[in-house]
Amino acid sequence: MAGRAWLSDQRGELAAEKILDAAEKLFAERDPASVGMNEIARAAGCSRATLYRYFESRDALYTAYVHRWANTLYQELTQRLAGIDDPAQRLVTGITESLTLVRSNPSLASWFAETGPPIGVAMAEQSDVIAAMVRTFLSALGTDDPEVVEQRARWVVRVMTSLLSFPGRDADDERAMLTEFVVPVVVSPGATATRAPTPRRR
């Protein structure tokens, strides 16, 4: 009965957002891998059956949560990179700002905690949405070959998840590593940056 009452007030996308909001609060407090669907349902104020109407499994909920935050971070990052035209600087700043945004948010940082299973790494590296965003970002750095962009996008995601799980000594150390080892591989010689389109929120 509680599930029906809950459903009568929340429909479709709004209901899914309410569930993800509840999950976010739990993820900020604990390792996401330790948060069960029962706990999320209780936190959202709905029944377990209602929860499964919107997310058929915990993996489906994880994926929706990661994609929601990926869109939010991408839009924030686009604003932070406004006015940076040099491709190398844009790449390094884009990665370092992304790391800062994730690390400063407890509900995201917990996915890459050294003390728990690195589920954030697997989610990020397997996500087609994140890969598409990174491809869009890299295409704006002046690389046109889709195959090259695809390969570099997957590699950049792996670099970022590695730094989230195993940070450098400090921000300057990470920036130096990116400048020395990532820029020469990812930024094509003579590239000119163009503006990346902002992805539509789904």
From TrEMBL:
The keyword Lyase does not apply. Coiled coil: none annotated. Residues 13-73 form the HTH tetR-type domain. The keyword DNA-binding applies. Residues 36-55 bind DNA. Keywords: DNA-binding. InterPro entries: Homeodomain-like_sf, HTH-type_TetR-like_transc_reg, HTH_TetR. PROSITE patterns: HTH_TETR_2. This is TetR/AcrR family transcriptional regulator. It comes from [Mycobacterium] vasticus.
